[in-house]
Amino acid sequence: MTAAYLQPFMVLVTCWVLPAMAIVTLFLWIEKGEPTSNY
Questions:
Q1: Which 8-state DSSP code applies to residue 33?
Q2: How far apart are CA 18 and CA 14, in angstroms?
Q3: Which ranges of 1-39 would DSSP assign to H, the alpha helix?
Q4: Is the pTM of this model over 0.70?
Q5: Pair 8, 1: CB distance under 8 Å
Q6: What 3-state class would DSSP assign to 32?
Q7: pLDDT digits (tens, 9 = 90+) for 1-39
Q8: Which residues of 11-22 are buried (b: 16+ CB within 10 A; e: fewer)?
Q9: How far is CA 39 from each of CA 6, 17, 20, 21, 24, rounded to the nearest angstrom?
Q10: Dist CA 10 CA 1 (whole Å)
């Protein structure tokens, strides 16, 4: 595996994990039904 092969994969993971984390955070925030004051 060369860097030329890993770079697009890492970019794909980053572009997929970050939105996924945002969606999960938003979902948990909505499930709580209250703003996270203890941030």
A1: T
A2: 6
A3: 3-32
A4: no
A5: no
A6: helix
A7: 577 888 988 898 899 999 999 999 999 988 887 665 555
A8: eeeeeeeeeeee
A9: 34, 21, 19, 16, 16
A10: 13
CA distances from 32 to 24, 26, 27, 38 (A): 12, 10, 9, 13
Q: Which amino acid is at 38?
A: N
AA identity, residue 2? T
CA 11/CA 31 separation, integer angstroms: 30
> Are the C-beta atoms of residues 36 and 29 closer than 8 Å to each other?
yes
